[in-house]
């Protein structure tokens, strides 16, 4: 089993550090380097690779400084990331073997938040690093992609095995729950979960990772097909469209203005 640790950086980002039993470490989206360097030193880890989900600075901003200290480790990500940061561009369907880590990571292209957005999946250990595409009880903003693209990307995440652990990059959960309650005020799973997250956050614990199974029950953006969700979104956005993508699009817009 890999150990996956959250290192909080910036306002509300997490750098996920995947640690092997032999002390190797893969860093996911190091948007800042100081906290990551401190963790690596404290735990005596050996950085072996970096994964980058997309080009936003809060996901890549720490890489250059980190690489200056830790030399030539491969940096996997979309080729669109600026300044030659990515040394190993990867695409949909690529497989990555990282020294010290049994099994493969597979790459999926999941556009919507940005056009270049990738996820890194370890099917054997059932881990998915999904960047800013899916959040706990929410999803990323559509900065570059279309609602169709984002809906399709989320649908692909939905179809992973239910126990798959989802490692999102931001701690937006309480804010997302507040919005989700406007769509599903009677969702008991959501109401119960809110209490748990309040407790976690009071203790300064991350509300992540989550699982596919849990998100299917509490994340309104994965529930656009449900009749009561459609009805609520139509009511709140004053529209009559009822196909899943239109409901998703209106829901995302409601969240933008929430
Ligand atoms: Zn982003």
Can you walk me through this structure?
There is one protein chain. The protein starts with a strand and ends with a helix. By secondary structure, the chain is α/β, with parallel strands linked by helices. It has a six-stranded mixed sheet, with helices on one face. A hairpin with an 8-residue loop joins β7 (95-96) and β8. The protein has one domain: Ribonuclease Z/Hydroxyacylglutathione hydrolase-like (Metallo-beta-lactamase, Chain A), CATH 3.60.15. It has nine helices and 14 strands. Helix content is 35%, strand content 22%. Residues 54, 56, 113, 132 line the site of zinc ion.
Query: How many H/I helices?
Result: 9
Ligand catalogue: zinc ion
CATH T-level topology: Metallo-beta-lactamase, Chain A
The largest β sheet comes out as: 6 strands, mixed
| Intertermini distance | 40 Å
Mean pLDDT across residues: 97
What low-confidence regions span 5 or more consecutive residues with pLDDT below 50?
Answer: none
Q: What percentage of the residues does DSSP assign to strands (E)?
A: 15-25%
The SS-based structural class is: alpha/beta
Name of the CATH class: Alpha Beta
Query: Tally of extended strands?
Result: 14
* CATH architecture verdict: 4-Layer Sandwich
Query: What shape does the CA trace take?
Result: globular
Q: In which order are the strands of the major sheet placed? A: 1-2-3-4-5-6
Structural domain count = 1
């Amino acid at each position: 089993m890999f150990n996956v640790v959250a290192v909080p950086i910036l306002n509300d980002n997490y750098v996920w550090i995947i640690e092997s039993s032999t002390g190797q470490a893969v860093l996911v989206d190091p948007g800042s380097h100081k906290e990551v360097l401190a963790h690596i030193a404290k735990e005596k880890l050996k950085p072996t690779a970096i994964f980058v989900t997309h080009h936003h600075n809060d996901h890549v901003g720490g890489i250059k400084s980190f690489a200056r200290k830790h030399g030539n480790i491969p940096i996997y990500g979309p080729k669109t990331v600026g300044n030659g940061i990515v040394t190993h561009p990867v695409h949909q369907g690529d497989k990555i073997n990282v020294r010290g880590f049994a099994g493969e990571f597979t790459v999926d292209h999941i556009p919507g938040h940005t056009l270049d957005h990738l996820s890194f999946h370890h099917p054997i250990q059932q881990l998915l690093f999904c960047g800013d595409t899916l959040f706990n009880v929410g999803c990323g903003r559509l900065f570059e992609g279309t609602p169709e693209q984002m809906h399709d990307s989320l649908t692909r995440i939905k179809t992973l095995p239910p126990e798959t652990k989802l490692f999102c990059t931001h701690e937006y959960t309480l804010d997302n729950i507040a919005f989700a309650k406007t769509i599903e005020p009677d969702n008991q799973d959501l109401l119960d979960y809110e209490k748990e997250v309040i407790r976690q956050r009071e203790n300064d614990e991350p509300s992540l990772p989550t699982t596919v199974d849990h998100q299917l029950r509490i994340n309104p953006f994965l529930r656009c097909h449900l009749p009561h969700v459609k009805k609520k979104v139509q009511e709140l956005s004053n529209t009559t469209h009822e196909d899943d993508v239109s409901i998703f699009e209106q829901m995302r817009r409601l969240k933008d203005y929430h």
